[in-house]
Specification:
This protein has helices spanning 2-10, 41-45, 58-74, 83-88, 97-108, 119-135, 138-147, 206-216, 253-261, 285-288, 339-345, 355-359, 381-389, and strands spanning 27-33, 79-82, 111-113, 149-159, 162-173, 186-188, 193-195, 223-224, 236-239, 242-247, 269-275, 289-293, 296-300, 317-324, 330-338, 349-353, 366-369, 372-376, 393-397, 414-419. It is α/β, with parallel strands linked by helices and 422 residues long. The model is unreliable at 1-12 (pLDDT under 50). The structure holds arginine (ARG).
Length: 422
């Protein structure tokens, strides 16, 4: 509520302290989310093309998202900020800067295809479109951003009773169906926000919208991954002295190299977790690994194999350990170290999670504080007992629809600020 109020009053949310998360188990205080809306509809027609696991009820997913946000608020998260609220903030004034900026973004996300028109009509239609955008309601501009329509103009008949030639249109869209997975477009490190590059073309445009949203919140990314590299937020965990980053299906070595070279982590150590399996069921590090506290981690049981051999066991994890030297650059201190062994060495006890509970998104829980998580229900009683036995306080919400987009609580939350313990 505080968030909505300051958006309305100030027009943006800029603050003295920059965004940042020093450790994944520190108390989450500001979370950016997007409730799935009409932009998801085409994905329900062909889930695979949308990077979804299955079709689902959009109304159901929206309701589940609302309940998730309500749960975060009752669990004490200070601010849960919605992408749409940021887009709309301050746009009531038709001559204001906020509306002008939103209209420009909306125009960049929309295509007016005049290629089958004659030269004079092209110009006239472009001008007409400009005039139309200038009069649009802010909500229409937001739909343009989320649904990314293409209006294909051509010549046709005005109607059955009117044989004149008219301009007619066909409509297509390239919507941001996965925007609700708000973890993935960026990472929040100890130093600030790094804007990623999505691995799949279906999600490529999400970064521009998130960049706009961050700017409006007063958050300037400390770095943006270059167009040739790939990095998605689901692969990253800040962990105090160190940061973990997955290298696999979605995030590549080139992006991690850039992040090291530009010193975006701000940690003495960076652990690159190398996944040879590269299967969509475990597309990001946060689908098979998670951190619940300074000494407690989750790992899918069939990867919890010490001293494994990648040639024998495709889900075996190896880790490259980079350490920061006196010049502030990183050296490769250990290559292909045993990941499970490394966790033990650094004092993390692992709760092994069965493949069935992993598939129920039991690992993709959101850590909102030390040993405090919010996750999707549908996991086994045995798993709930294992968490309780490690003093983990878990709140379970129903995500029957939402998770069929191929993700759960962690994937839908971008924690922009975490508060270190006093
Ligand atoms: N952090 C995550 N695990 N995100 C899951 C993203 C799911 C989304 N449908 C995709 O394929 O990109």
């Amino acid at each position: 509520m505080a968030a909505a109020a300051s958006l309305l009053l100030g027009g943006h949310l800029s603050r003295a302290e920059p965004a940042g998360a020093y450790a994944h188990w520190h108390e989450a205080t500001q979370i950016l989310v997007h409730r799935p809306g009409e932009e998801v509809f085409p994905g329900l027609l062909h889930p695979a093309a949308a990077l979804f696991a299955d079709t689902f009820s959009l109304e159901g997913a929206a309701r589940e998202h609302q309940q998730f946000v309500a749960t975060l608020e009752t669990q004490g998260v200070d601010e849960v900020i919605h992408v749409v609220d940021v887009l709309l903030a301050g746009t009531e004034d038709p001559d204001g800067e906020a509306r002008r900026a939103l209209a420009n973004l909306a125009k960049r996300m929309t295509t007016l295809d005049v290629s089958s028109l004659g030269p004079a009509d092209r110009e006239a239609q472009r001008a007409y479109f400009e005039e139309t955008v200038a009069k649009m309601a802010p909500g229409t501009l937001v739909r343009m951003v989320l649904e990314r329509p293409t209006v294909v103009l051509g010549y046709g008949q005005c109607g059955a009773t009117e044989p004149r030639t008219c301009i007619v249109a066909e409509y297509r869209q390239n919507p941001l169906m996965n925007l609700y997975f708000a973890r993935d477009q960026m990472v929040t490190t100890a130093r600030g926000v790094v804007l990623g590059r999505m691995a799949n073309p279906q999600r490529a445009a999400e970064r521009e919208v998130m960049k706009f949203v961050l700017a409006k919140m007063g958050i300037e990314p400390i770095y943006e991954i270059s167009p040739d590299a790939r990095m998605e937020g689901g692969d990253f965990f800040p962990a105090g002295e160190r940061a973990f980053i997955g290298q696999g299906l979605r995030t590549n070595a080139a992006a991690i190299r850039e992040m090291l070279d530009h010193d975006v982590f701000g940690t003495p150590e960076v652990i690159v977790v190398k996944d040879a399996w590269q299967d969509p069921r475990e597309m990001h590090l946060d689908t098979y690994f998670n951190l619940l506290d300074a000494d407690l981690a989750l790992l899918v049981a069939d990867r919890d194999v010490p001293d494994c051999d990648v040639h024998q066991h495709v889900k075996c994890l190896k880790a490259d350990v980079w350490t920061r030297n006196a010049q502030g650059t990183y050296d490769l201190a250990r290559e292909n170290a045993d990941f499970v062994g490394f966790l033990g060495e650094k004092g993390f006890r692992v709760i092994p999670v069965s493949v069935a509970d992993q598939e129920a998104y039991g690992i993709n829980v959101l850590t909102i504080g030390p040993r405090r998580i919010v996750g999707a229900d549908g996991v086994s009683e045995a798993y709930k007992r294992a968490l309780a036995a490690s003093s983990v306080q878990a709140t379970w919400v129903r995500f029957d629809n939402l998770k069929r987009g191929y993700g759960s609580a962690d994937c839908i939350s971008q924690v922009l600020r975490r508060r270190p313990p006093k």
